[in-house]
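WARN retry 2 of 3 for item q-0093 after timeout on previous attempt; input resubmitted unchanged.
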Amino acid sequence: MGWYILKLLILLPLIGLMIWGSLKLAQKMQGQFGAPQGGGAKAVRVVETTMLSPTMRLAVIEFHGREILVSTSRAGLTRLAEAPARQAPEGPAIAENGK
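OK item q-0093 returned
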């Protein structure tokens, strides 16, 4: 019985440390897979997503100066609309309230 408790006291923290380490490694490596070679800017950027139901959502994707509205579901992606990309505002927007 004492041998079992000794193994438990040694292996349980060891397993916890291995789980914690694998989670930290996954967080560190998350953004590195699928990155373009050469350190250039990404060609595709997700601008906005909206959940319509648990299995369906709308996403606006920017690709080469175009914004594409797509529907995502279990069946895959469907392109719904396409428009020129909107320009981001130059400075911070300041709301004036009449003063």
